[in-house]
Amino acid sequence: MPNSKDSVLTTRATAELLGVAVSTAQLWIENGAIPSWKTPGGHRRVRLSAVKRLMEERGLVAPVAAAVAPAVASSAEFLPLPTAAYPVPHDEAQRLLALDAARIVDTPAESVFDRLTWLASQVTESPMALISLLTSKRQWFKSRIGVEVVETPRDWAFCSHAILQDGLFVVEDATRDPRFQDNPLVIGEPHIRFYAAFPLFDANKVPLGTLCVLDREPRRLRDREIRSLRELAAIASEEIQRRTRP
After folding, report:
1. How does pLDDT run across 67-99, given as a tens digit for each residue?
2. Which of 21, 22, 157, 223 has the fewest CB atoms inside 10 Å of its own CB, making it the most exposed?
3. What is the count of structural domains for the chain?
């Protein structure tokens, strides 16, 4: 009988973990190389343990996956959604497992992170600053300045765009950007106009979230503000890495 904590994966999530095309994963599932079963809706599902076993047998364990993937995901929100209404990194399955391994989502506030958001707000003269972590279903704020809510749905997250690149991601005026002009956080509280962020990485350069600053007015960052935000994001990344599961 399978372990009740052994995560259930879709074919796409299986392909992402294996680093192969979806068609290849489908072939391996159909020919029995990866044990599977069908849901009442006719969709194939597999156990994470079966995927890991195949990776070990065929030498398919990628360096990042081997270093960051826990035995199982602790919650469904650390597994990719079958379809997502937000931009998804090509390695989203591994990214979510890495976030799970960091064991930081839904932890209490910590002064070290609160100091970083305060400094980010001060050095960029921004009324709002966040340390945001992205599960498959929500963006959760480990630390926040000038924002009342502690989380939002993932498909509202500007940060979903920011984690797709290594460096600075900027939206100078969200009302003029078709990606964000209808976003609930733009048309409603906190009425975001300006957004700037650097990704936060684990030890294997997997992006887990962002350090971002926001404003209710369109604007730009000066060079020294960009440098300061980059350095603060690097410190936040180092603090998160301290918490990563062995």
Report:
1. 333 334 567 888 888 889 999 998 898 899 889
2. 223
3. 2
